[in-house]
Amino acid sequence: MATIKPFRAIRYDQEKIDHINHVISQPYDRVRYGLQDEYYALSDYNVTRIIKGKEFDSDSDADNVYTRAKGFLNQWLKDGILLREDKPAFYVYHQTFPLPSGKTITRKAFICAFELAGFEEGIVLPHEKTHAGPKIDRLNLTRATETYFGNIFMLYPDSENRIDALFDQAINRPPDIEAEELHEKDVLHKVWFVTDPVIIEQVNDEMAPKNNLIIADGHHRYETALTYQEEMQNKFPDAPPAAGFNHRMVAMVSMSNPGLTILPTHRLIFDYQKMGSKTILEKAADYFAVEKLSNRADLEEKMAQGVDQFGKFGFACQEGYYLLTLNKPEILDSLAPERAQAWRDLDVSILHKLLLSHIMDIDEKKIDNLENIKYLRDPDMGYDEVEKSGTSYLFILNATRIEQVTACTDVGEKMPQKSTDFYPKIVTGFAMLPVSPDERL
């Protein structure tokens, strides 16, 4: 049973800031490559100062990114930059954006307080592996601020999009927030506060019987919330189920939403010394049809033609561009006999297990630890790196499809890291969920 609740959010008072665009940000794990500095420059009140604050050599136990985050939150509340809603609300969240084809679509979501459920309960299912480092960081931030700032991006089954239809009735008016975020400038964000108790009850009733919800983005944050919940339950054993720390702020998106978009994540292998491109291609020919192409455009056109096909990869090196098409899929049966067929049918699984580990002899632990590998949404940097370096290799992938995600979660398989890139990201800063020990939902 999936239990969701409206909540009294902390949010920016738009009359106290110069523009909402200047205080929102990408999720914390996207704040890199100079983006942190850009957000800092936008506003003294940008949420990045809390979710991904700057570190300094002088940091100590008494003064660090987490204590400063707590200080920003408390000071902004005191100064009225942030306010607390009077009424519990669901926050309907639409993102309108263009596809590469030029078509414009809208992905509909709603932000709520989700009652945490362990994976063993079958209400929430993960689809990717996680690593310890990000979870420790997020846990320290939660301990310091007792607030959730970013959302878990959660997919829920709703074949008829009944919940979206209910919210559509409630938002027949201009949005309460309209924004564009610095990094993904082609995305228009609109947020409506829905406090109507009738709509809230209807949405709760629709959601209650659902299970097999899938974490699309935010696996580390969800697991962190479970750890924090356990800590707080041990400290406050008499706290009721309605206690704030038993919940996590979540952006819910229907699996049937026509705006649900997954982008591919390409792999750049750099400073690779074991073998050259000629040897890699010769070994790959044992399992793949290898086709030499004249340029990048031809490679990307071939990949686009095979978007719904199995086992197609682009390979770029200093010697040129190649299309690799798997012609011996049975090799995955011997390389990963313990895995379900749904996992073996993933291009990312074929890439990691066959091409990187088996053919190029890269230790799987090094892949997991992000050693000599970069994950790229935009392959331009990868092509540039390959052109400059004879020890760098770029693998181009097509996007994982939503039916592949559900196939893996249905059989309890976790996909390799960075198997999916749901676009656009759920922006941070529209609503914040307090989860202090005395908070009740």
Helix content: 25-40%
User: How big a fraction of the residues is strand?
Assistant: 15-25%
Structural class: alpha+beta
The end-to-end distance, rounded to whole angstroms, is 17 Å
Can you walk me through this structure?
There is one protein chain. The chain has 441 residues and is an alpha+beta fold. The protein has 2 domains: 4-261 and 423-434, no CATH class; 265-398, no CATH class. 32% of the residues lie in helices and 23% in strands. The protein is built from 15 helices and 21 strands. It has helices spanning 35-42, 48-51, 65-78, 132-145, 162-170, 197-207, 219-235, 277-284, 296-305, 331-335, 341-344, 347-359, 364-368, 380-388, 402-410; strands at 4-5, 10-12, 82-84, 90-98, 104-115, 124-125, 147-148, 152-156, 177-180, 188-194, 213-217, 247-254, 261-263, 266-269, 288-293, 312-317, 320-326, 373-376, 393-396, 421-423, 433-434. Strands 1, 4, 5, 6, 8, 9, 10, 11 and 12 form a 9-stranded mixed β-sheet that branches. The chain has a 6-stranded antiparallel β-sheet with strand order 15-17-16-19-14-18, sandwiched between helices. Strands 2-3 form a two-stranded antiparallel sheet. Strand 16 and strand 17 (320-326) form a beta hairpin. Helix 3 (65-78) runs parallel beside helix 4, helix 4 crosses helix 7 and helix 5 packs antiparallel against helix 6 (197-207). The relative contact order is 0.18.
